[in-house]
Specification:
The chain has 140 residues and is of the alpha/beta class. It is built from four helices and four strands. A four-stranded parallel beta sheet has the order 3-2-1-4, covered by helices on one side. Helix 1 packs across helix 3 and helix 2 packs across helix 4. The chain starts with a helix and ends with a helix.
Length: 140
């Protein structure tokens, strides 16, 4: 039982740190309620580029005029016409813990087949492509 309590305490501590990361981003970048956040926690080049390739369609479909792309420090994208924010890997992990716990924003997308809940087995099933996955499972 003590092991469970320690894990739970650790999870909540990471969530508190994640909230602090979010508050810092929110303040520094003047994030508004209508802005969208797209998190790129994984170093999955194919998935990340598919997400960037389909980003315009998502923004148009959801009538979003401003998006912040948040990458962990190992996933740096240059030359984007969008606001790009790079944070440390551990900060991204904490931010995801906070998101899993509270889902603190309506317009947030996590570009991952692992986080926050995992769906990596769907690609290739019944003809589902990576772009299909991005547009119909992530950008919803």
């Amino acid at each position: 039982m003590e092991n469970f309590k320690e894990k739970l305490d650790s999870y909540f501590e990471a969530s508190r740190r994640g909230r602090a990361v979010w508050k810092e981003i929110e303040k520094k970048y003047h994030v508004l309620e209508e802005d969208s956040l797209v998190l790129f926690p994984d170093n999955d080049e194919k998935l990340n580029y598919a997400a960037l390739r389909n980003l315009g369609g998502y923004l148009k479909k959801k009538y979003i005029s401003r998006v912040l792309l948040i990458f962990s420090d190992r996933n740096i994208i240059y030359g984007s016409k969008y606001q790009v924010i790079n944070i440390k890997e551990d900060m991204m992990r904490d931010l995801l813990r906070y998101y899993r716990l509270t889902q603190f924003r309506e317009k947030i997308v996590v570009i991952s087949m692992k986080e926050p809940f995992g769906n990596d087995g769907i690609i290739g099933e019944k003809g589902i492509t990576l772009d299909d996955y991005v547009m119909n499972a992530l950008y919803v």
